[in-house]
């Protein structure tokens, strides 16, 4: 386990460094203005009393993010299209005391509004928003992409995500602040043969994150993204099924991602501990981009 604050080498090999003079809690010097507002939570990873809305939360990365937040005390609203899978996810997370579900399509504005309303009506707030739904209905060269398919990808992945943030902003965060996490992809950071149309949509999400972070920072809303490489979910099955050893060999850490890898990162980025992190896209790729092409 790694402990922040100070330089330390722990038994599991984790080494952390800090800039000079940043050890311990900062003392306020005489004459220095107080921070604009103290944050209500004292610990960086406690989600007690907080509500998160996680789209695409019935399985895979979305469910792992939801579990990671519930484990830290949050209550969650999950969305997806299939009600049966959502019901199973709610049970797996601990039942209706901690999780509720809203079935619908992420591309539907009424569904997005209902999901946001449900969070506020059921649990009393909407502190964290996770735009996790992403689709990829076209595999092939961008130059041959049917424009209807391209439009659909952009509509669900980009327009749907912006619509979701707008809805959460209107209904809660614009007044109360909050934290937003967008699930992008390494496909949005470089060329990716076969999934280029999807990559374009994920690149747009990376910039959407930057733009929204700057616009919304003064309203105490942070906006960050994660950009995973191949994570073992149904969505990515075609990329590793039957050749997992070969694909894993391309990752310096020697394995593919698992949904929990993304859940852990999400819990940090959405937490108060990341209070000075906004507009960032955190690459979660087992070192693959550092090494070269995946
Ligand atoms: N897995 C990877 O390697 C990888 C890498 C980088 C980025 N990502 C991104 O991670 C996100 C989650 O992917 P995943 O791998 O966790 O996929 P997954 O295991 O297939 O889960 C997708 C989730 O989204 C829901 N969903 C799909 N389309 C939807 C729609 N139009 N409206 C509402 N809900 C919808 C699914 O439920 P229903 O089917 O019931 O709707 C399910 O809950 C996506 O944005 C993806 O682009 C994945």
Lateral arrangement of strands in the main beta sheet? 5-4-3-6-7-8-9
Beta-strand fraction estimate = 5-15%
The CATH H-level homologous superfamily: NAD(P)-binding Rossmann-like Domain
The CATH topology name reads Rossmann fold
General shape: globular
N-to-C SSE series?
A: EEEHEHEHEHEHEHHHEH
How many DSSP-defined strands?
A: 9
Terminal Cα span: 29 Å
Bound molecules: NADP nicotinamide-adenine-dinucleotide phosphate
Derived structural class: alpha/beta
> Gyration radius, to the nearest Å?
19 Å
Give the helix proportion (percent range).
25-40%
- Number of structural units classed as domains: 1
Q: What is the arithmetic mean of pLDDT?
A: 88
By CATH reckoning, the class would read: Alpha Beta
Oligomer: single chain
Poorly predicted spans? 1-36, 38-43
Give a short overview.
By secondary structure, the protein is an alpha/beta fold. 39% of the residues lie in helices and 14% in strands.
Which short descriptors sum up this protein?
two-stranded antiparallel ribbon, 9 strands, alpha/beta, binds NADP nicotinamide-adenine-dinucleotide phosphate, Rossmann fold, 294 residues, 9 helices, 14% strand
Walkthrough of the structure:
- With 294 residues, this protein is an alpha/beta fold.
- The protein has helices spanning 60-71, 83-93, 109-123, 147-176, 196-216, 237-240, 244-248, 259-270, 288-291; strands spanning 8-9, 15-16, 51-54, 75-80, 99-103, 128-131, 178-183, 221-228, 281-284.
- The strands form 2 sheets. The protein has a 7-stranded parallel beta sheet, with helices on both faces. A two-stranded antiparallel sheet has the order 1-2.
- Strand 1 (8-9) and strand 2 form a beta hairpin.
- It starts with 7 loop residues before the first strand and ends with a helix.
- Mean pLDDT is 88; it is low at 1-36 and 38-43.
- NADP nicotinamide-adenine-dinucleotide phosphate (NAP) is lined by residues 56-62, 79-82, 85, 105-107, 132-135, 156, 183, 185, 228, 230-231, 233-236.
- NADP nicotinamide-adenine-dinucleotide phosphate (NAP) binds at residues 56-62, 79-82, 85, 105-107, 132-135, 156, 183, 185, 228, 230-231, 233-236.
